[in-house]
Amino acid sequence: MSLNKQTTIPAALENIKSGQTIMVGGFGLIGSPLSIIHYLTEHDVSELTVISNNVGEKGEGLGLLLRQGKLKKAIGSYFTSNRDVAKYYNEGKLELELLPQGTLAEAIRAGGAGIGGFYTKTAVGTDLAIGKEVKEIDGEKYLLQKGLKADVAIIKAWKADPLGNLVYYKTAQNFNPNMATAASYVIAEVDEIVELGELLPDEIITPHLYVDAIVKSEWILTKDGVKTK
Amino acid sequence: MSLNKQTTIPAALENIKSGQTIMVGGFGLIGSPLSIIHYLTEHDVSELTVISNNVGEKGEGLGLLLRQGKLKKAIGSYFTSNRDVAKYYNEGKLELELLPQGTLAEAIRAGGAGIGGFYTKTAVGTDLAIGKEVKEIDGEKYLLQKGLKADVAIIKAWKADPLGNLVYYKTAQNFNPNMATAASYVIAEVDEIVELGELLPDEIITPHLYVDAIVKSEWILTKDGVKTK
Amino acid sequence: MRELIAERAAKELAPYSIINLGIGIPTLVADYIDDDLHILHTENGMLGVTSVDEEHIDPLVVNAGKLPVGEAIAASYFSSADSFAMIRGGHIDVAILGALQIDSSGKIANWAIPGRDIIGVGGAMDLLEGAKKIIITTSHTSNDGSPKIVDKCTFPITSQRVAEIIITELAVFNWKGGRYELTELMGDATLEEVKSKTTANYSINEGLLLEGEKV
Amino acid sequence: MRELIAERAAKELAPYSIINLGIGIPTLVADYIDDDLHILHTENGMLGVTSVDEEHIDPLVVNAGKLPVGEAIAASYFSSADSFAMIRGGHIDVAILGALQIDSSGKIANWAIPGRDIIGVGGAMDLLEGAKKIIITTSHTSNDGSPKIVDKCTFPITSQRVAEIIITELAVFNWKGGRYELTELMGDATLEEVKSKTTANYSINEGLLLEGEKV
């Protein structure tokens, strides 16, 4: 198999355009594609809708793009830890859509799996159920959540082979494998690119059919914060 | 961790009672818990509803239980290859519920994941949509499928540790990891039980919290059919 | 005849496409593709299917027809739910499937025969719904000589979705502008022969018409 | 005080239960459990969480509070969707969570404060809905001294589901027959003190009453 999906970050970013919906992997900065985000700060793009658990942290990760005014809307579960989010939201500079974390993760999986929507018990009878369809199934109440899809997903993996098979590192996995399935164009930032055949069939988490481009990481999360490699 | 879930097949089978719904792993005989099924032929049980892609093959695997008259109903996607199924069905001795294979797999996953139901485009406008709810989401038609759950799941894995972490063998995986999540009591038949810690965190497919009992396989599928080990 | 159809179908496959092969003629397509350029998916849970020698057969490594297969480099295995997530989610480029009937509206019937017990569907509906492109490979007529490419399916349809390409031992049809267009005659087949064995409404590509027949 | 509550909560945990710990006091429970008997799940994708020495900290191995954790023997990692499938699907035995308010009907408010922007929920609603048993660990009153165990939550509730156990620095309540029962006084707390700091309707276990107070 001679196909090689490795490319540079700037080349991969040609696929991200203003007004698009972008999924961004990570739990805070853990497992977030920090290098791609760094290049996005220099990429001419605006009015993005991001689907990500958080908007990075204050002034870090996706938080950088927020401060640049590149984000129009954020769909996620926990925006509290980046205090800039409340500020931009109150100033009318950022729209927010808050989902329970499990509903968010499942909606992304559903989007990738061709599931139009699903019924969850989570959030039934709470303020997050306002405006959502309720259905009784076998005597229990459920909320309808539609699947989520994106134009582009930028994700972080540990290792890739040139064809795009991916494995993840411990709790840096989080939303990344789900987002890999749910976007029209998927860019995987990885720490290591190994020879074809080096990732064993049983250890591959994301099969290559989900991945469009592989780029090498340049910025990583260390004990002392985000650093260049 | 001193918990050891290994037990004997007869002891594990005490959890299977007449009238229950049982999920049975496997694609035909591949990845089917053949040893547990063998012991079930000697277990006093009847009126079972089985959820399984097929009813084994003719006179093999689940096909043995069909011939013993232990099955009341089968929910699956492809009953054609076991010709006994049509015979029992026509004689009114077996109820059938036919689902597209992807809908079956997703319904089992949903049952295990606390999803009450989901919308799929598969089967819209076909005979398998008769009597099912249709919903339009973002301009496209979808069918509602409820999640499936069972009282007991009998599955086949390759290796287990004593705590119940499981890994599967190649295409013998199929429905097994999904069924492991969707039953009140899960019995995993495995070819090998390894020391705690021998299965690496990154290779575990079914985390132990899904597994209630581990039993060693005695009958396996070989090139020459089902044989004792 | 079956080989001829399979070989022709293989020519439709773009490099590096992800392909799912149904049972029957579609399975034969595997013999005509370049393992280095095409990637086979099987819905029972494997990406990177290849052929296997008799001596290396593993009874636990099979395709959706339960036939032994081999493992290509960079292959992966996954659960049934994950496999159908790929199919339904639109991640399979091409599904090559057999058919009992195809009709003027592009609909396919390939899972059930009226009068017989309907007891199996397998992955047919998911594949027809989810794959980005559908190629139907089939004999042009049934064993009894009756047309399979008909005006309206009398067998239960598999999906509302249109199949883009039909390849038989006589002809190749492409879906275009709301109907099938006959784009190629196979072997020695003639327009007349195709016409006599096809009750579906279809157009004929200009290149296949004699000068006088063109509209 | 926080340690006292955490230590008491640990006593509620059956051997080999699968436990998810929320942020705050619940996180401290980890210090009082036996790693050989209890298994910790964290919703960001790990089963088999343990503590970690300063020198072995890996910035990419964290719990849901983004604090560094260690990997117990037989641990496993998984995606967010798989992790919440475990939670929502009823595969977590116990969730120990903090609360802003708990009311007479057993409902919990622990994700939003009226008047402040509602911009974070995380996994709170999933855990409260999906875990088999809920233990609430919280200070008995707010920083301003107002009761947290109230007649009716004035803060937005997290779920319609009832929390089975409440543990504070003053008391332990168990949900029983449609209301909370005060089953234990903590440290030197008295029935009077609990009564004065609790506006919820609750019953008192007979064993805690003096002979004359029993009904």
UniProtKB/TrEMBL annotation, chains A, B:
Superkingdom of origin organism: Bacteria
Naturally occurring in which organism (per UniProt): Sporosarcina limicola
Molecular function GO labels: CoA-transferase activity
Pfam families in alphabetical order: CoA_trans (PF01144)
InterPro entries: 3-oxoacid_CoA-transf_A (IPR012792), CoA_trans_fam_I (IPR004165), NagB/RpiA_transferase-like (IPR037171)
SUPFAM superfamilies according to UniProt: NagB/RpiA/CoA transferase-like
UniProt cross-references to NCBIfam families, sorted A to Z: pcaI_scoA_fam
Protein name: 3-oxoacid CoA-transferase A subunit
From TrEMBL, chains C, D:
Pfam family, any one: CoA_trans
Protein's UniProt keywords contain Transcription: no
Membrane-traversing stretches: none
InterPro entries, A to Z: 3-oxoacid_CoA-transf_B, CoA_trans_fam_I, NagB/RpiA_transferase-like
GO molecular-function term, one example from the UniProt record: CoA-transferase activity
Signal peptide region: none
Keywords associated with the record: Transferase
SUPFAM superfamilies: NagB/RpiA/CoA transferase-like
KW Transferase (keyword) present: yes
Coiled coil: none
Family: Belongs to the 3-oxoacid CoA-transferase subunit B family.
Protein name: 3-oxoacid CoA-transferase B subunit
Source organism of the structure: Sporosarcina limicola
